Structures are given as C-alpha cells and as structure tokens.
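note to self: dont lose this again. the chain is below, predicted strucutre after it. 351 aa total, dont forget to put it in the shared folder this time
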Amino acid sequence: MKKLLSVLLMVCLCFGMAAGCGAQRESEKESVSGDFDEATNVTVQIKGLQFEVPKKWEESAIAKNESKENVKCFKSEDIYLKVIYGSNAIEKLDDESYKAYLSGLGTRFGSFEIGTISDENYNGMTAKKSDVSFTVDTEKYNGDVFTFEVAEFIFGVKQGCEKDYASDIQKVLASIKTVEYQEVTKDLSYIFLQEDMRWNMARAEVEDIEKREIDTLDSVENGNMSYLAYEPDRSTDEYSNSATLVYCFEDDYLKAYWCSYDVGYISDYKELYDKIKDTISEKYGECESEDVKWTDETYQNEDAKWNDAFRYGYVTVKTIWHTEDTAIVITWDYNSSLTVAMSETDFENRL
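---
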C-alpha cells in the first residue's frame, strides 16, 4: 500500500512539474513582443530606402537640426527607433574607426555608450553593428546601432522593460530594401553669400533679404561685433542638417559670412571637403593654396584613413581663394569643425 502511495505521489509530482514548465514556457511566450505583424505593419520610405515598422511604433518628432527628408523616428511605450538615411563607407570602417564614428553619432543623444562591435548581414545587405546604451530626453535605452551603406538604424528598449523585442527589430531589418528614387538636383550654394548681398551692407538690410529661419541660440552680440546665425534649408543636400550659417557684422555693417558643419553629424569628412572645394573652384577657379599639416603622418598616404586622421586630430587643412574684394577660406580642423568662411579682404585676418 505504501509503495502504491509512493508511486501515485511521484506521478502527481511529475504532472505538477510538467504543468509548471508549461506555465513557465507560456510566461516566456508572453514576455516576447509580437509587435511586428505583416498584416498591420506600416511601410516607410526615406528617399531610396524602404522598410516596415510595427503599427504600434508611432512616428515621433526628430531633433530641430535633423532633416525631415533624411531622418525618421519611431516610439512606443517601450522602444525607440531612429533611422538616418545617408551614405556610409562601411567597407572603410574597421572596428576602431567605427567606434570613433559612433562617438560622433552619439552626440545626437543625451548619453551614448558603445559596446561590442560586429559585422552582420541582413537580407543580403552588409552592416556594422554595435551594442549601445543611450539616453533620449530622460529615458534610458539599451539596444544596438546597425550601420548599412545607405542608412543607420539606432534601436533601443527602455531599461527595465521585461519584453523581448529582438525578433521585432530583426524583422524590421529583414524588411529593408532599396527602391528607385529620383532625387532633385541639390547643391552647396548656401555656403556662398547671397548674390544680392555685399560687404558693408547694413545689418537691417541683410535681415530684410534673409528669409531662412534664424537660430537665436547661436546669434550673439559682443560689443561692436554682432553675429546672426541661420539654418540652411535642411533638404538642400545630405550635409545641410549639420550646418549653421553666420553673418558677422562690425558696427552693424556686414564684414564676413561663414558656414560651419558640426563634425558629430558627418560620416565622411573627406567627401564633404572635396565637394566644398570643387563647388568653390567651379565659381572662383583653382585655389591659391591648400595647406595640409600633419601632426601624425601614419595615415598620410592612405586615402581610406583620412577620415580617421581628421577624427583624431592628426591633420588640418586650410584652403584659400581671393577675388578683388573677397577672401574665401576652408578650414578643416577637428577642434573647430569644418568651416567655409567668406569675408571682405581687409577683414580676413580677423576671422
């Protein structure tokens, strides 16, 4: 009888354990997000890039200095996804270079910590990937950055969230495809002083002519010097989202104008420098001088490493043109960003 009771007890225990395991598996299933649903997903297109996101991930506002044509942001109660369209020379990025690149990207966030870096492939598209943790406003997220040749996907899940969104973001990445896109021809004309402006023009007249949005945070008054900052049309070119335009006045008369690029928003410094130099040369002819100085010549003869040399401050460039009344100078220096300045010739040495 005792043996029978022992057997029955063992059977009950086995069933109990099985039920417990089943409940545990069911609980695990409940902790996995199922937001990605092909029946309800939203198809998103940014220029020549198309992908799907779950309907629950609603589009949200982007930063003021980001281009609506190039950047999309999505949020839900638990997740954050930012997609940045733009060319990335990932074949030139080894792990150290990628880490430096991510450090620049991190300036878009309140805090940004870089983890393990790896090479991945999604739907036949090569990507660099890094574990990251970052802050948006006051919310902290853990996630990943996925860098493709055509775009950046920055994905995070709120710290403390118990749901697993790994499958969702993998499916978003698997849905990526390139599509035909006819882009309107764009240029860097905003680096030049407007045709209907001139040196020694009164500040009030400049303000009447200038129709772009003023940047009050970067506009400064300092004694008899004043500086009015404006934002270029963010759709002008792929770099305009990182640019600030400044008019410089002495005693309220125009003396200089410059365009500065925030290095944290640029993925290929050399490409931008070459485009600016070519644009100025088309208008004013070949430059008078191009002074390239190296503090460390390790990467001097490797074009693919010039972006690293710029990032680490190993190289500076100063390129100059002159006309009858105007000096044009490109200054490429990590400590003072990439700047294109135009001034009255007598004012050149005061920039």
